[in-house]
Amino acid sequence: MSGLVVSPFDRQRYVGSVCTVLPATVEVNLPFAPRPGSTLMAGYPLQRGQVGEFVVIEGEEHAVLGRLVETKLPERDRLTVEPTHERDARPNPVGVVQLLTAVDLETGIPLRGIPISPRIGQHIFSAHPLVVKQIVEAGTTPEAKRINLARFPHARDTLVSLSPSQLLGRHCAVLGATGGGKSWTLAVLVEEIARLGGKAILFDATGEFQTQVDPRITHVHLGGRKVDQNDPRRFLSFPYWELTESDLFVLLRPSPGVQAPKLKEALRSLKIAQLVPGLAANGLIRKTGTPRHPFEAACVQHGLALRRPGTYFDIEQLSNQIWEECVWPSGFNAAQAGNWGGTNANEQSACATLMSRVESELASPNLECLFAPAGLEPLPSVVEAFLADPAQRVLRINLEFLSFEHNAREVVANAVGRHLLGLARQGRFMANPIVTLLDEAHQFLDKSVGDELSRTDLDAFGLIAKEGRKYSLTCVLATQRPRDIPEDVLSQMGMFIVHRLINERDRNVVEKACGDLDASAAAFLPTLGQGEALVVGANSAMPLPVAINRPARPPSSRSADYENLWG
């Protein structure tokens, strides 16, 4: 009869008839709605008039799929449902159906929009879960290559699977209040990417994904050290020379005036000391009374290396080099005009606090992974090995041991994101797309760190969202605070998996960012149960309520058991 897997117009699934037609909704008679509970038909639930139910409106060439968003009794019938009512009158409920999409009856292919509005008197049927599944999963991707994401809340036997391109190809946002099920969703995505042979890098902000024990998943840790020789964990460094000058300024916090330019000069001098060892003495560029021309010529010759991250220098010498920078710009007479001058005591006095701060930062155990990388594997090398190893599918970077002190966690995570974007711009991911999954994304997006005069924007993951797709680098952002994600980043998300959202500002932000999520669909968000979500996006035919599958290895995201631990 049609291109649909089952007939959408099954008389046993009859719900009612259209009585009012509006551009985006229709009102329907619901003669069976007052009957308590739902029934089963051929093993599938039949609700017949329950808010949230999907319905199909009968048509000649296509069927219109809608969702029941409101049921009510006309004023004259309001008291007929009361047990004290004397007359044996039956209530006549009316429902409001939001029109979602239409499907071609001959091909079974969903259409964008509603080509022909329903007419008064057309019959309405409860949508069979397999019809909804076919509309949602429309495409040519075989079942074996789809991401098994969820099931229907009222038909748990019906699996909802989406193609990787549909779910991840245009970035994805996983949103929801604490306890709504975001971590489960991320865990399911990680397991499915590994199963399908994809490549992903998971930034684990809290360490809750340590449960993902799988030979295809590599676990590494930024920050911290091994407890003893028997500790199996892999602790990595992100070497300080991979940071930008702006990153170092945020960590070392020079004051404006004297300290900031002297720190800038000292960093340049230490790099020249490594690039042109003949100009250095014991790893330092001595400036007092020495000729300026050889140093300046070396700066011009190695200008590119000085400007980009990755040029090695010895940070242990930084405070000494700052001291060396405190000289007059030229000698006091014509014979010494081409030399640096003598020591400037005022600048040395002004830089004393900066030098003390540098020594303190370098000795901080919380920043060992940056400033004392000896004995630790560098993260860029581990990323390279992960990309080259076909057996490894997911790289989990655990950030829980990385301190928030002096914005270290935000700076390092941003630097790693910038490193990945740099690889993407070189075309490294074109043959093997990479998905970056960022848990607690609000910690790393829309952040400006540093003081007023050395402020820097942490924009690496925002840039991945804006331009990564053309380089086959996409992202999944998970957060409980959508209002803290920049609007221009959220607008780049092609797919939203929205769990329970209670805060009205959060719901407004999501509704504004996702054009397919209107007010009537957003009204269901506060009532979603744990693990339930709305899947909605540019490639999705309609906002779809689902119950996310239980991951094979659920994350350890439970709170402390106060009742048993206290007392």
UniProtKB/TrEMBL annotation:
Keyword Hydrolase present in the record's keywords: the answer is: yes
Keywords tagged on the record: ATP-binding, DNA-binding, Helicase, Hydrolase, Isomerase, Nucleotide-binding
Name recorded for this polypeptide: ATP-binding protein
Which Gene Ontology MF annotations are present?
A: ATP binding; DNA binding; helicase activity; hydrolase activity
Give start and end of each Helicase HerA-like C-terminal domain.
435-558
**Xref: Pfam families:** DUF87, HerA_C
Q: Which InterPro entries match?
A: HerA-like (IPR008571), HerA_C (IPR033186), HerA_central (IPR002789), P-loop_NTPase (IPR027417)
Keyword field contains Nucleotide-binding: yes
Please report the stretch or stretches of sequence annotated as the Helicase HerA central domain.
155-268
